[in-house]
Amino acid sequence: MAKVNLPAGRSSSREVDAFLSKAARVPALRQVKGRLIFAIDATMSRQATWDRAANIQTDMFSVAEGIGGLGVQLVYFRGFGEFRASEWTTSPSVLGRRMQEVTCLSGGTQLCRVLSHANDEARRAKISTLVYIGDCFEESPDVATNEAAKLALLGIRAFMFHEGLDPAAANTFQQIARLTNGVYARFDGGAARQLRELLTAAAVYATGGGLALKQYGAKVGGEVLRLSRQIGDK
Fold first, then answer.
1. Interatomic CA distance for residues 158 and 174, integer angstroms
2. For 3-21, how does the pLDDT look when each residue is reduced to its tens digit (9 = 90+)?
3. What are the start-end ranges of the H helices in 154-191?
4. What string of DSSP letters covers 72-100?
């Protein structure tokens, strides 16, 4: 007779209550006010920043919770043509587990595919914000800007966060931000606080729009205030 694997023991009523309480605090996707695509270059040079972003991503959900909640889809590329998009989630623990499972691999950039994917997703459900974190660009600028123009027609603003000083990436990222009425910001790979502020700014905008970002920027200052001013000028 085949063995049946049974639980080692029953959960206590306290454990069950804690689980149900935690589950109740995670909003359903249909209940959140904002949706954000969180796209990251996961090629080999990106591991340190990937790990840093995995640890920081919880803050996006926390800052959006009081505004109306946030739904996030993780998108990444790595290796030779590998491109992945997760399910949508409103849970930082789910997104964190997804990110912890990923190891960066050598390969070329696929920003154009990220932009095309964002366009496809926006045709299925309303998305306000695309966040992209990358350090270089090895594709056609014309293709990238064409896809960015499509994002603009769908009302999606791109928050282009650029690690390092690569001039080709800087030029293309700035063009994408301009075309989508989004923002471009450069950050240093070791600056965890700077990256945290950039991501929370994007989450606030995705959930509450320009007014919420302006109010939050006035409260916390730093990169959030700077980005709120960029958005406010458009």
1. 10
2. 444 444 455 556 544 544 4
3. 167-179
4. EEEEEEETTTEEEE---BS-HHHHHHHHH
Q: Which residues contact 210 (CB under 8 A, 6 or more apart)?
A: 228, 231, 232
- Asked if 185 contacts 161 with a C-beta cutoff of 8 angstroms, the reply is yes
Is this prediction's pTM over 0.70?
Answer: yes
Contact 117, 85 (CB under 8 A): yes
Tell me what pLDDT residue 138 has. 96
User: Within its chain, how far is the Cα of 3 from the centroid?
Assistant: 44
C-alpha torsion angle, residues 85, 39, 117, 27 (rounded to 10): 60
From 121, 81, 85, select the one nearest 102 (Cα to Cα). 85
Three-state secondary-structure class, residue 126: coil
Task: Dig out the tokens for 164 from the structure.
Answer: 């390092």
Q: Quick: pLDDT tens for 60-107.
A: 999 999 899 999 999 999 999 999 999 999 999 999 999 999 999 999
| Helices (H), ranges, 135-191 | 141-153, 167-179
**Tokens in use for 150?**
């499509």
Interhelix angle for 92-100 vs 58-65, to 10°?
170
CATH architecture of residue range(s) 29-209: 3-Layer(aba) Sandwich (3.40)
- Sheet containing strand 183-187, edge to edge, reads 82-85, 70-78, 34-41, 129-134, 157-163, 183-187
Between CA 185 and CA 207 the distance in angstroms is 20
